[in-house]
Amino acid sequence: MTDIRADAFDSMPSRGRERVRVEEENRRLAQERKKIARDGAKLKGEKLAGRLNVAWRRPPGIIGWLATVDHKEIGRRYILTALGFLALGGVLALLMRLQLAKPDNAMIGAERYNQIFTMHGSTMMFLFAVPVMEGVAVYVIPLMLGTRSTAFPRLNAFSYFMYLFGGLMLWGAFVLNIGPDVGWFAYTPLSGPEFTPGKRADVWAQMITFTEVSALAAAVVLVCTILKARAPGMTLSRMPLFAWAMLVQAVMIIFAMPAVALCSSMLISDRTIGTNFYNAAEHGDALLWQHLFWFFGHPEVYIIFIPATGFVSQLVETFCRRPVFAHAVVVLALISTGILAFGLWVHHMFATGLPRVGYSFYTAASISVSVPTGLQIFCWLATIWDGRPRFHVPMLYVVGFIITFVIGGLTGVMVAAVPLDLQLHDTYFVVAHFHYVLIGGAVFPLLGILTYWYPKITGRMMSETLGKIGFWMVFLGFQLAFFPMHWSGLLGMPRRVYTYPAGLGLEVPNMLSTVGAFVVAAAVGLFVINGVWSLFRGVIATPNPWGAATLEWATSSPPPVYNFAHIPVVESNTPLWDLEDELPVVTGLRVDEKEMLLTTVVAATPDVREPVPQASLWPFISSCAVGIVFIASIFSPWAIAVGVIPCFIALTAWFWPKELKRTPEPVIT
Questions:
Q1: Is residue 489 domain-resident?
Q2: Given this model, what pLDDT does residue 39 score?
Q3: Same structural domain for residues 48 and 95?
Q4: What is the mean pLDDT of each run of 10 residues along the chain (669 residues)?
Q5: DSSP classification of residue 574
């Protein structure tokens, strides 16, 4: 071939040979120019990254660790702390299952069992389920929205420290044998001063105050970030479904959490300064506690569940390689669930003797809330049917979630009917139901999404083999642990009892539940081993190892401290799938200072350049001041009056106006 080409070239006229030489020279010069441009862009990018690293890095050492406002660091702390509390709550669950494995067991006494039962429920509901969902969102949402930081990053840091101090206070009290023993719901008058002397109930009530302040602060951060910090072009209709789920959850927190903060504050007031909010002898009302608590408590279930549906939507989209079927229907279902969740709290109170006319309304509301959830499940199934599913470990957890949650949803519809609820109320049938809903509906998607976003957080892939073994262990172990509880509940076994007599037919289901609980514990332990091993020995992840469509995969894994060197521009629901080349970007943000781009709420058009606060110790100092006041008020109400002074000083220093090098300017693109 070479000789033929040479012969053909030699046989050309001299003018033709010259034209060929010129064309080849032009191609060579074009390739050199491209190489020079690439090298220049790389050098420019390296210089830009270096300047951004200087502007966004936090101070070194322990001071920097306490002062950081980087949402990624705070998100990691939320996740790891919540998983630590999950482990502690799980150990208590195993102790309860050992106690109930056989009848007439004397391993744990009644008083200690009440403490263990209360600590298990309080830890799982208040210290694990909600914080871990918010922690994942704090880490991922800014990356998913294509921005550099959360709104109010110092408030974000404050929320974590309040959460941490509340959990440490609760578990410190338990270690000191003054832990609460009134159940995670603390019904009055049982939790009042007459029936629970000492400080056990006060510790529980003040833990509620810590966690609610934390949750409210994080919710405000998420709402403002989602509405005002989306990448240009990411209209509300193009926003990822996980971001929609977190927006609905955060708004629900803002409306629901004040109810439980109010009722716990009223309980502390009854116990410490002698008010009578719940004292029926002094014209108070014990049922007022249940109304206030469950007005928060039932939306709490959906506050936990709705982020999990966002997890499932992201996993189904990625592993089926197509957008979720009927995107608008899923969004409307999320919003409908958030609204309906506030209208059915009384189904927890069917056995309290309420007026019968209200039963029909709350039964209908309790059944109707299953409709939007069912729509989401059908949309996921349609996506799987029409797509090309790849059953990696995260997708296996989606399948396990759908199976398990459907079982829990069906039993939920059953107990929404008043006649059946009156028979099954306070039995182990209800325990089985809400574990199917909460573990099946929240923990399964959580394990799947942690596996999915593990390479984004750490830069390494988790072991697929260990992941699949762990999935089957947790799925089968869960069914073995909780399905027999339906059986024991139908046989009449009541909740919250520390033992039961022999001969009632409860031995077999309780033993099966105990075996299943230990299988689940082993599966969770394997998940932790997989995570730790993969952190050091896992395969190094590419920026987008799953081939996903959302913006968190448009940056490196793990992301740099500033997230994005240039803010991306979004033109569709699946930006990384729809563009073959690099994403279009917005330029113009400063690189010598921390700065983020704010956009309009609906259309996400560029609005203003907003300075981002520097790292500061004042959120930590403020949380310490507020925490000391909360803990001291358990022992003396005067602590509130005295503690206002250091809190005021800390907050004043936090919010004291800082002189900026320049004022925010409008952005013109």
A1: yes
A2: 45
A3: no
A4: 50 62 69 54 63 87 93 96 96 96 92 95 95 96 95 96 96 93 91 90 94 95 96 94 97 95 93 91 90 93 95 96 94 95 90 83 90 94 93 96 94 91 93 93 95 96 96 96 96 93 94 96 96 94 92 93 92 86 82 90 91 92 95 90 92 81 49
A5: S
Cβ–Cβ < 8 Å for 116, 92:
yes
Q: Looking at the structure, do residues 397 and 298 belong to the same domain, yes or no?
A: yes
Dihedral of CA atoms 276, 277, 279, 280 in degrees, nearest 10, equals: 120
**Residue matched to tokens 């099946």:** 440
The HSE-up count of residue 377 (CA atoms within 13 Å, CB side) is 16
Q: How many angstroms separate the CA atoms of 182 and 167, rounded?
A: 17
Helical packing angle, 444-458 and 393-415, nearest 10°: 150
Q: Tell me 282's DSSP state.
A: G
The answer to whether 647 touches 622, Cβ cutoff 8 Å, is yes
- The answer on 458 and 516 residing in a single domain is yes
Q: Give the domain extent around 48.
A: 2-52
Query: Considering just the CA atoms, what is the radius of gyration of the chain in Å?
Result: 28
* 448 contacts 395 by C-beta, under 8 angstroms: yes
Rounded-to-integer distance, Cα 137 and Cα 159, Å: 14
CB 289 within 8 A of CB 188: yes
Query: What integer pLDDT is reported at residue 668 of this predicted model?
Result: 40
Q: For residue 60, what are the CA distances in angstroms to 68, 80, 186, 583, 593?
A: 10, 21, 44, 34, 18
66 and 45 in a common domain: no
Q: Which regions of 290-417 does DSSP assign to beta strands (E)?
A: none
- The predicted structure's pLDDT at residue 92: 96
In the chain, % helix, strand, coil (3-state, to 5) comes to 70, 5, 25
CA angle 309, 546, 303 (to 5 degrees): 15
Q: pLDDT value at position 263?
A: 93
pLDDT value of residue 27? 73
